[in-house]
Amino acid sequence: MSTGFKLRFPEADLEKWAAQYDYPGEPELIAGPVARARERGYLEYSAFLAIAEWKSPRNRKRHASNAPEFVEEVTRVALAPGTSSRLAIETLTLLAGVDWPTASVVLHFCHATPYPILDFRALWSLSRDVPARYTYPFFLEYSEFTRGLAQRSEVSMRILDRALWKFSQVNQRPSQKMRK
């Protein structure tokens, strides 16, 4: 059964593309807010703001409008071991300013289970358009495909995400840009 995802470059080149990736603030994000969230099992308000801004700085005011207690409560549910992927991603979208791509970043960085980041660049590198509206079945299909690709290629989900993003940044023409 075909998933409709198809890598636009050879799997053997994943690490090559990932090595070229350089996104501002990522090392600090991983060493600080992400590490604390993984240790605690939830996001403190400041860590949530840092991670959300890394993905979606335009929504800064909406992110900041969330009550710190609600951020902690929602992220405790989403990041708990054994939480279903559907509950994890959809719970995060209860937070103001958090849509599926931003929720996927929280899961990608902070959950013990490997999750991909929903991003127009990653989807382009996998020969898929950004859907008009994200749904759980799409997210599940994308997650399963990327997990399988990472496992086959013996790379982490972070390496895979970096490679998909960088390949698109270098090769995707402006006319090929899709909805975020």
Could you explain the architecture of this structure?
By secondary structure, this protein is mainly alpha-helical. The protein has one domain (11-176). It is 59% helix and 0% strand. It has helices spanning 14-19, 26-40, 45-55, 60-64, 68-79, 85-92, 100-110, 120-125, 136-153, 157-171. Helix 2 (26-40) packs across helix 3 (45-55), helix 5 (68-79) runs antiparallel to helix 6 and helix 6 crosses helix 7. The longest helix has 18 residues, at 136-153.
Which short descriptors sum up this protein?
mainly alpha; 180 residues
| Number of discrete helical segments | 10
The helical percent reads 55-70%
Structural category: mainly alpha
Spans with pLDDT under 50 lasting ≥5 residues? none
> How many strands, which pairing sense, and closed or not: the largest β-sheet?
none
General form: globular
Output mean pLDDT. Answer: 94
Q: What is the H/E order?
A: HHHHHHHHHH
Number of separate structural domains: 1
Computed over alpha carbons, the radius of gyration is: 16 Å
Task: State the separation between the terminal residues, measured CA to CA.
Answer: 27 Å
Number of strands: 0
- What fraction strand? under 5%
